[in-house]
C-alpha cells in the first residue's frame, strides 16, 4: 500500500493552514466595503471595487412651464447621448415635481436607445436629514431665509453622505444648467486623482464674486484670498501663493465614504467652526454650499481637490458689468478643454 512520506504530509498541512489563513484575511478585510455593505463583485475582483457612477440631481418646485423642466430634459438627453458608462440617477423631488420628472425621463428614454436607472428621494426627508447643517450655514451663506426646504436645497451636497444609501461610496452632484461636451466618464475619472485627504472635488469659481465678498478682509490684510490665479507666485509666504478664486458648486464630486469616515468633517460643519471662519474673514455670502467650500478650501486645503475649470466652465459674465470690468477676464479665463459648460445666471449655452 502506498503511504505518503512524512515531509509531504507536513507540506500539505502547511499549505492547508496557509489557504485557511488567506480566506480569513479575505473575508475579514476585503469582502465587505468599509461601510459594511457587501460588495457583489468582490469574488471576481478581490482587490478592486467595481466603479460606480452615481449622478445626483435636484428637481423641485417645478411646474408645467418652468425652465427647470426643459433644462432637466436637455441635460438628461445630453448625458445619455454622450456618455459611455452605466449611470445611476438619484433625483431629489417634491411630490408634485415627481410626476413631471417621470414624464421627462420617459420622454428622453423613448427617444434614445438607452435604458436608465433612476431613483427618487423626497426633498422633505432630505431636508430633515441635514437640518442641523442648514441651521448652521443659513445665517452666513443664504441671501434671505426662505422656506424650510428651499434653504436645505442650497446645502444638499454637504449632507449628501446622510441621504445617499450607506453602500454608495462616491457621488457626482450636478446643477441642471449644464451641457456636457464630452463623456461624463472623464468627470468620474477625476476621483482617481484625488489626494488621499480630499473629501470633495470642485472646480474654481470663474468670476470675482469672492473678491467682492472678501473686500473688507482684503483691505486690512495682505492676503491672496479672493485674488485671481496668477501663473507665477505673488506671495511666497502664504498658503495660496498664486491666488485663490474660490469654488463653484455647479459640479461637485463627493467621496461619501471618506466623509463618513472623517473625524475632521464633523468638526468642520459645526457651528463653532463656521462662526470662527466667517468672522475671521468677515465673510457674508449668498451662494450656499459653495461659499462654505470656498472658506474650507482656503483654510483647510487638504479637504478639497481642485479639479480643472474645464469640468465646470461657467459662462456667467454678470460681474463684468458690475464693477469688476478691469479684472473680470483674469478670473474668467480657462485654458483647459471644456468637458462641461455651465450656463449659470441663466446664460444661454452655445452648442
Ligand atoms: C450626440 O453625441 C454626438 C457625439 O457623441 C454628437 O455628435 C451629436 O450631435 C449628439 N446629439 C445630440 C442630439 O445631442
Ligand atoms: C408627499 O408624499 C409623501 C408620501 O407619499 C407624504 O408623506 C408627504 O407628506 C407628501 N408631502 C406633501 C408636501 O404633500
Ligand atoms: C451658533 O453660534 C452663534 C454664536 O454663538 C449663536 O448665536 C447661534 O444661535 C448658533 N447657531 C446654531 C444653529 O447653533
Ligand atoms: C503683500 O505681501 C507680499 C509678499 O507676501 C509683498 O510682496 C507685498 O508688497 C505686500 N503688499 C502690501 C500692500 O503689504
Ligand atoms: C474615497 O475615500 C475612501 C476612504 O478614505 C478611499 O478608500 C477611496 O480610495 C477614495 N476614493 C474613491 C474613488 O472611492
Tag the structure with descriptive keywords:
351 residues, alpha/beta, Spore Coat Polysaccharide Biosynthesis Protein SpsA, Chain A, 7-stranded mixed sheet, 3-stranded mixed sheet, 15 helices, 14% strand, globular, binds 2-acetamido-2-deoxy-beta-D-glucopyranose
Plain-language structure description:
- The model is unreliable at 27-42 (pLDDT under 50).
- This protein starts with 5 loop residues before the first helix and ends in a 9-residue tail after the last strand.
- α15 links the parallel β9 (313-314) and β10 (340-342).
- The chain is globular and about 80 Å long.
- 42% of the residues lie in helices and 14% in strands.
- It is α/β, with parallel strands linked by helices.
- It has a single domain, classed as Spore Coat Polysaccharide Biosynthesis Protein SpsA, Chain A, CATH 3.90.550.10.
- It has a seven-stranded mixed beta sheet with strand order 3-2-1-4-7-6-8, with helices on both faces. A three-stranded mixed beta sheet has the order 5-10-9.
- α2 (67-82) packs parallel to α3.
- It is built from 15 helices and ten strands.
- Bound molecules: 2-acetamido-2-deoxy-beta-D-glucopyranose (5 copies).
Amino acid at each position: 500500500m502506498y503511504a505518503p512520506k512524512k515531509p509531504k504530509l507536513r507540506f500539505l498541512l502547511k499549505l492547508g493552514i496557509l489557504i485557511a489563513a488567506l480566506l480569513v484575511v479575505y473575508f475579514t478585510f476585503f469582502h465587505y466595503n468599509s461601510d459594511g455593505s457587501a460588495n457583489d463583485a468582490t469574488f471576481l475582483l478581490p482587490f478592486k471595487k467595481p466603479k460606480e457612477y452615481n449622478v445626483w440631481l435636484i428637481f423641485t418646485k417645478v411646474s408645467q412651464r418652468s425652465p427647470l423642466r426643459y433644462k432637466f430634459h436637455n441635460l438628461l438627453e445630453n448625458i445619455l447621448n454622450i456618455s459611455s458608462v452605466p449611470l445611476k440617477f438619484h433625483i431629489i423631488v417634491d411630490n408634485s415635481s415627481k410626476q413631471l420628472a417621470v414624464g421627462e425621463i420617459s420622454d428622453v428614454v423613448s427617444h434614445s436607445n438607452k435604458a436608465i436607472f433612476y431613483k427618487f428621494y423626497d426633498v422633505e426627508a432630505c431636508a430633515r436629514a441635514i437640518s442641523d447643517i442648514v441651521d448652521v450655514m443659513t445665517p452666513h451663506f443664504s441671501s434671505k431665509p426662505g422656506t424650510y426646504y428651499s434653504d436645505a436645497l442650497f446645502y444638499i451636497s454637504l449632507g449628501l453622505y446622510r441621504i445617499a444609501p450607506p453602500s454608495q461610496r462616491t457621488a457626482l452632484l450636478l446643477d441642471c444648467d449644464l451641457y456636457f461636451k464630452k463623456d461624463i466618464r472623464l468627470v468620474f475619472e477625476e476621483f482617481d486623482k484625488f489626494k488621499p485627504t480630499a473629501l470633495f472635488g470642485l472646480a474654481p469659481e470663474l468670476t470675482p464674486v469672492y473678491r467682492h465678498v472678501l473686500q473688507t478682509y482684503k483691505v486690512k490684510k495682505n492676503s491672496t484670498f479672493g485674488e485671481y490665479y496668477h501663473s507665477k507666485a505673488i506671495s511666497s509666504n502664504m498658503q495660496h501663493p498664486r491666488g485663490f478664486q474660490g469654488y463653484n458648486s455647479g459640479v461637485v464630486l463627493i467621496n461619501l465614504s471618506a466623509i463618513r469616515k472623517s473625524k475632521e468633517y464633523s468638526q468642520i460643519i459645526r457651528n463653532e467652526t463656521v462662526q470662527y471662519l466667517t468672522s475671521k474673514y468677515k465673510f457674508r455670502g449668498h451662494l450656499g454650499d459653495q461659499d462654505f467650500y470656498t472658506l474650507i478650501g482656503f483654510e483647510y486645503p487638504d479637504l478639497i481637490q481642485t479639479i480643472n475649470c474645464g469640468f465646470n466652465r461657467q459662462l456667467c459674465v454678470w460681474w463684468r458689468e458690475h464693477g469688476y470690468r478691469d479684472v473680470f477676464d483674469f478670473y474668467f479665463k480657462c485654458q483647459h478643454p471644456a468637458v462641461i459648460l455651465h450656463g449659470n445666471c441663466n446664460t444661454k449655452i452655445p452648442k
